[in-house]
Amino acid sequence: MIESSAVISTCGQYRYRLFRRWKSGPTCVFIMLNPSTADGTQDDPTIRRCIGFAKREHCGALEVVNLFAFRATSPADLKRAEYPLGQENNVYIARALSKTGPLIAAWGAHGVFLGRDRAVLNMAGGLLQCLGKTKQGHPRHPLYVRSDQPLIAL
């Protein structure tokens, strides 16, 4: 990696942005539900999968933001958090939406929690794509799709 970073709150409970660059080129943005264990130097399985999709789309970097900035390994833990959104989260989402590469929604069915999916869809103004949809129409998570799954309009 040429560059690897993350913006994590001082308390460590929130991750607002994760960034990886491996070459020059556009930045592929993934908007998922909430951050897990990946940080400025360590990737988790989801981030490794997102990097694979970004490379497939001929991008040189990956930026990950989330509907909720609270770090949790399960949606149940996220939903128990006192303030799951995170104070600065919308600022980082808005910045990510200005990137030139693909903007990929990937938050799954739990994105409806607190209406965050609708809020971010409104911020994006119809520019989002996804790696397929669930039966209920939610954007699929990158761990649960084939590596050759094409991007489609959300």
Summarize this, please?
This protein has 154 residues and is an alpha/beta fold.
What can you see in these coordinates?
This protein has 154 residues and is α/β, with parallel strands linked by helices. It has one domain (3-153). Helices cover 23% and strands 21% of the residues. It contains four helices and seven strands, in the order βββαβααβαββ. The chain has a seven-stranded mixed sheet, with helices on both faces. β1 (3-8) and β2 form a beta hairpin. The radius of gyration is 14 Å and the shape is globular.
Give the topology, please.
Blueprint lengths: L2 E6 L6 E7 L5 E6 L12 H12 L4 E6 L8 H6 L8 H8 L6 E3 L10 H9 L4 E2 L21 E2 L1
Parallel strand pairs: 3-4, 3-5, 5-6
Antiparallel strand pairs: 1-2, 2-4, 6-7
Rg on CA atoms, Å: 14 Å
- Identify the strand order in the major beta sheet: 1-2-4-3-5-6-7
**Main sheet summary:** 7 strands, mixed
* Number of E-state strands: 7
Q: Please state the structural category.
A: alpha/beta
Relative strand content: 15-25%
| Element order: H for helix, E for strand | EEEHEHHEHEE
The global form is globular
Q: What's the domain count?
A: 1
Distance between the ends: 30 Å
Helix content: 10-25%
Can you tell me the residue ranges where pLDDT is under 50 for at least 5 consecutive residues? Answer: none
Number of helices: 4
Mean of pLDDT: 95
Protein name: DUF1643 domain-containing protein
InterPro entries: DUF1643
Organism: Hartmannibacter diazotrophicus
Pfam families: DUF1643
Characteristic terms for this protein:
4 helices; seven-stranded mixed beta sheet; alpha/beta; 154 residues
